[in-house]
Amino acid sequence: MKIYTDKDLSPNIQKYMPKVKEEKLFYKDYGLKHPSALYNLSFTKIREALSLFLDLHKQCDTSDFERYEKEKGPLLVKAYRDLLYCFMEHLDDCFHVVKSFVPPPIKETSNPNQYSWLKQNANSIVEDFFNKIDEYKKHIGGIVNELKHNNGILSGISFYEPNQPGHFCLGYFVCNVVNGAFQPVDKIHTKIGGASTAFSFRRDLNYNLYHIYYISEEMMILLREKVGIDFESVCGAEASENMKQIFRDLMDIPRYHFPDEYTKPVPSISFDEERVKLEYPSPLAIKPNNLSKGVQNYPTDGHTGEYKFIYK
User: Fold this and answer.
1) 143: phi then psi, degrees, rounded to nearest 5
2) What is the crossing angle of helices 73-99 and 201-222, to 10°?
3) Domain map of the chain by residue range?
4) Maximum pairwise Cα distance, the chain
5) Number of separate helices (H) and strands (E) present in the chain
6) What is the distance between the alpha carbons of residues 131 and 112, in angstroms, rounded to a whole number?
C-alpha cells in the first residue's frame, strides 16, 4: 500500500480528529481524553524518541568504529528501546481513540485491555481493522512484551567496512538466557543455516514508521465506514522544522540491510521536503551488501558466560 502525507508530514488522521463533531464522540463516558489530544500526545512521544535516536545514529563514524561502539553503542540501543516502547504505546493509544467513537454498550464487558475490550464490546466495528493490523501488532507486541515482561534485553549488532564512511549497517536483537547461554529469542528472530538473525535499524525503522501511518489510514477507513464519520476536507499546516529534520536524517541512514533482510518485503520511505511517501511492500530492489560483520554487543549479567553467535 502507498501512503502520502500532507505537507504537515504527520499521519493523516491527526489533522481530521479535531474536526469531528462532539456528538460523534463518547470519550467522556469512558473517562478518556479527547481522541485528538490522545493522538497528538502519542505521536509527539514517537517524534521525540525518534529524533533522539536519529541524533545519536548520525554520529556514527566508521573510521573509528570501535570507539563509537564503546561510547555511543549502548546509548543508541537504549534510545531505540525507548522508541520501540513508543511504537507499542501508540498502538494501544489508537485503541483508546477507536473506543472514543463506540457508544457505551447497555451491558458492558469490563476489561482494562482496550484491544480486548473492543473485541468484546464492538467486534462488528473493529473486526476488519484488527485483521489488517494483526501482523504489525504481533511484531511490535512480541518484541516489547519480551523486553518488559520476560526480562529480555535489547542488544546491538553491526556490519561495517573500516575507514569507509557511510559503509555500515547497525541494528539490534532481543536476547535472553536459554539453557545457560545468552541468545536471540527464537520467537522474535528467525534462523538461517542454524544461526540467529537480527533487525537492521534501516529496515526496522521503515517498517515501524510505515505501520504508524498505515494504522492512521485504516482508522480513517474504520471511522468512515463503520461509524459514519464524514471527514471534511482539511489542509495540514506547514511541517515543523523538527519533522522535516527527522525525515532528512532518516533518508541519510546508509541503505544497507542485514543479510537475511534482502529476502524480505521492502518497506520504503521517501521525502522531498513537501510530503512523505511510505510504501510496503515496495517494488524497490535492494542489493545485498558485502560488509563485514562487526560487533555483537551481548550483555553481561555477572553470571552467564556463554553467548550464541548471530549470523555465520
Assistant:
1) -70, -55
2) 10
3) 2-307
4) 67
5) 8, 11
6) 21
Neighbours of 295 (CB within 10 A): 17
Joined together, the cell numbers standing for residue 55 give 541524533
Residue with cell 533487525: 199
CA–CA gap between residue 101 and residue 224 (Å, rounded): 11
* 306, 181 contact by CB (below 8 A): yes
Q: Measure the CA–CA gap between 301 and 105, rounded to whole angstroms.
A: 50
Residue 153, SS3 per DSSP: strand
Q: What is the pTM of this model?
A: 0.95
Burial 15-50 (b: 16+ CB within 10 A, else e): bbbeebeeeebebeeeebbbbbebbeebbebbbebb
Query: Which residues, listed in sequence order, are joined to residue 154 by a DSSP beta bridge?
Result: 174
Q: What is the pLDDT of residues 116-161, one digit of tens each?
A: 999 999 999 999 999 999 999 999 999 999 999 999 999 999 988 8
Separation between Cα atoms, residue 220 and residue 17, nearest integer Å? 10
Amino acid letter, 15: K
Report phi then psi at 191, rounded to 5. Answer: -120, 145
Q: Rounded distance, CA 122 to CA 111, Å?
A: 13
Positive or negative, the Cα torsion across 180, 184, 189, 195? negative
